[in-house]
What does this fold into?
Amino acid sequence: MVRALAPLLLLALAAGCRGEPPAPAAPGAIGAEDQRSACTRRGGRYEGTAAGAFYCLREHADAGRQCRTGADCAGECLARSGTCAPVSPLFGCHDVLDARGRQVTQCLR
It folds into this structure.
């Protein structure tokens, strides 16, 4: 019986080796190297997560400066301290002041 199934097993393995051709990139999609260079041109650091995702971490010159609205900062205005955030993006949940000075909770994962 094993001998009878062997050709079928080989055929199945061979079919699996062909695989599908890679999907073409979406129009306007930016490759990893382009994203990295765009990030560094803007003064950021291209960082990776344990899950394999990447993001552009930007430090702000106005970090710690007093603020009353989000418009007062290059990044976010932190509601609890009333100061500009040191970096963007701010992962997790944070109470920030929007452009009108209203307190909102912003969550980024």
Notes: The chain has two helices and seven strands. Confidence is low (pLDDT under 50) at residues 4-22.
